[in-house]
Amino acid sequence: MSHKRVLIIDDEEAIQTVVQFGLNMAVGWEVLTASSGPEGISRAQSEQPDMILLDVMMPDMDGLTTFQQLRQQPETQTIPVILLTAKAQASEKRIFQTTGVNGVITKPFNSLELAAQIVRILDW
Length: 124
Description:
The protein is an alpha/beta fold. The protein has 5 helices and 5 strands; from the N terminus they run βαβαβαβαβα.
């Protein structure tokens, strides 16, 4: 797998750490972090990651609002986005996928299998 830069936008520091471990240690990808929607949008614009992992449930600005704002910015509108959600219901996953996101990964996830899930979803 080639070197990739992934931005994780999640308000939980523990999730950021697990993603960093899983992607950096397992496959050598660079992992950027943001703890809120606005911070994530700013980092995505300045850092231009290869893809974004975006938590659905965050305070202030939720993941779907963040996703909509990412799609409205010329610098970020084509960056692939995968939602991270604790909402595992099939109907909720379908609703998320109708928003235009590239995929949905359910929490909790296995950090060592995360890269393989991303590769499968994005067909990398």
